[in-house]
Amino acid sequence: MVYRRTPCPSSPNSRSPAENFLGRPLRSTLSMLNPPRSILKNRDEKMEQQFNRHHNARPKQFEPEDLVWVRDYRLGQTKWISGKVLLRLGNALYDVLVNDNIVRRHANQLRRRETDDTPTMLWDDFDWPQPSSPSPSQSSSSSSPPSPSQKLPPSDNDVPAALRRSERHHQPPKRLNMDPSLKSYV
């Protein structure tokens, strides 16, 4: 097998004897480790776009000197701290400068930051509504619900709700008494 597969410089086009005979290279265990070229080239872009649309996936790419929020995994610290991208390593890893330390983070652990004075909460990235501080006119209105510290006067209609219990009658289990003289145990 090795002889038939080895390229020969004296054969036409410097191909192996088997390649000259069959017109294609022979498959071996070594050649089967490499993925076929057609699979690498053909990427189903339509399916990828549909997946990204369905799962709300957005491409995350950061350039050096970009301002980012970095996920902090230390206990007792805020979850997101500010940082600056120093270097991109591969497709998704980045070296980020955080508080004069260099940390390596995945793109999923980074969020884009616009300016230095952005609040530390990441409401926009998680599609949460931003909490609004109540204005003085809203706080004095009577339409707001009472706070838990304020007690309402008891009304005549306040009746304690009856506990819901099961009406099922519990019977003790019927144990099996082994008696060989009986033909049935039902």
TrEMBL record:
Region (Disordered): 1-22, 110-186
InterPro entries documented for this protein: Retrovirus_Pol_polyprotein (IPR050951)
Biased composition (Low complexity): 135-155
Protein name from the UniProt record: Uncharacterized protein
